[in-house]
Amino acid sequence: MTPSESRQVRFLVNPAAGRGTARARFEKLRILASRAGAGFVFSRSPEDLQTQARRAVDDGVERLLVAGGDGTMHHVAQALAGTACALGVLPLGTGNDLAATLNVPWDLDVAVHLAITGPVRQIDLIRVGQVGDVGETVCIGYAGVGFDSETTRYANSLQGVPKPLVYPWSVLRTLARFTPPRMKVVHDGGTFEGGVMFANACNLPRFGGGMRIAPDARIDDGLLDLVIVKAIPRLSLVAVFPKVYAGKHVGHPAVELLRTRRVEFTVDRETVMYGGGEPVRPVAAGEAVAVEVFPGGLTVVGAVPE
């Protein structure tokens, strides 16, 4: 890398990623940044992630190498959306679903090399907002409401649980108290109304650290994969849950999966929409929230599966 090129690469590290485990890799990342002749900054909060990413765009940084998980990438995407600054993913989070989709290696040295030298391309994003004013927030992997959002909220509060067990444990814990809401879901092909476990508009094939919720979803096809899981007994959900990791839930009579460019969600009770493991926006009872694809909204480094 030449000196002129090195000024166009910057590392942004979230020490809180992976439930704080990223702190142990802090010095390693600093050394890798120094070897690459790249800038090195770290975040102090989710808001600071956006601030630092926006500063990188303003400074003309061409590749922003971000160390963290899907939540970290969610916050950084708010600043990088629609810009030429490429996101290089360094997977140090709990789920790392974006990294897996982009075929980013888990070895940190190799991941850094890929982020600096690998191919750059555009992927889609999801825009979320009020009906008639979509676009205030973007998501990378999914946006949805229901059981999975409640599970994510609980998972984010857990401490001392091994990372691979966080989501499965949270599913079981949330299930004991969950009452399915009634939803109206309007999509390009029609309308669904009824009780649901959850409804998600997906851009990635996986979420929750490897659950292949929309196994055929593509990150760059200009479409969202809408997944609706209708209300079913708790024991039935427990039985089908393990199948999600292999995408074998598709075809279950309670699972509806289709493609669309736009979705409107209306829920019969107050809730919170989640995306990328982060709360996206509160949703009032009876409020219609619009979700639509943002084609080519994010520049990334990595290989998108053919």
Overview of the structural elements:
It is a single chain. This protein is of the alpha+beta class. The protein folds into two domains: 116 residues, 3-Layer(aba) Sandwich (Rossmann fold), CATH 3.40.50; 170 residues, Sandwich (Tumour Suppressor Smad4). 28% of the residues lie in helices and 35% in strands. The chain is built from nine helices and 15 strands. The strands form two sheets. Strands 1, 2, 3, 4, 5, 6, 7, 8, 9, 10, 11, 12 and 15 form a 13-stranded mixed sheet that branches. It has a two-stranded antiparallel ribbon with strand order 13-14. Strand 5 and strand 6 form a beta hairpin. It is globular and about 55 Å long. The N terminus is likely disordered.
Helix and strand arrangement:
Elements: H1 3-6, E1 9-13, H2 26-36, E2 39-42, H3 46-58, E3 63-68, H4 70-80, E4 86-91, H5 97-101, H6 108-117, E5 120-130, E6 133-139, E7 142-146, H7 147-157, H8 163-175, E8 182-187, E9 190-202, E10 224-230, H9 234-240, E11 255-260, E12 262-267, E13 271-275, E14 278-283, E15 288-301
Parallel strand pairs: 1-2, 1-3, 3-4, 4-15
Antiparallel strand pairs: 5-6, 5-15, 7-9, 8-9, 8-12, 9-10, 10-11, 12-15, 13-14
**Rg over C-alpha atoms, rounded to the nearest angstrom:** 19 Å
Largest sheet: 13 strands, mixed
State the shape: globular
CATH topology of the largest domain: Tumour Suppressor Smad4
